[in-house]
Specification:
By secondary structure, the protein is of the alpha/beta class. It has helices spanning 8-16, 20-30, 40-52, 56-68, 76-90, 94-105, and strands spanning 2-6, 34-38, 71-72, 110-113, 128-131. Helix 1 packs parallel to helix 3 (40-52).
Length: 136
Amino acid sequence: MIRTFIDSGVLIYAARAEGLVAQRALDVLKAPDRVFASSIFVKLEVLPKAIFNNQTDEVEFYEEFFRGVVYWATDIERVIQNAYQESSQFGLGAMDALHIAAAVSIGATEFITNEKLNKSIHRTQNIQIISIHSDL
């Protein structure tokens, strides 16, 4: 099984299920050869706003995904320290660095993102980055 960390943007695309990129996101989430990893940082990016805006279908989608997550980044202090190093070394934004550090901390082998190939997250060398925008 491939230990996969899903970026928040991929979850948003999948939950809203509109267009080719959304279909790619859904395909990743349905892949039988993957087991998922996540962190509180991803939850913070997707759930509160959907809850506040009463987007019940979207909330349900996210909650179902999080119930299926097998690997959770729990050593938050270590994740934050590593995110700082990641951001300093590769020029990543704060949330991207936190996501990458969380993924690495739990041994994820791939990080699936909606970020296009020209974005800073693709500079990291600590985990394989795969974009659902590739080849579009």
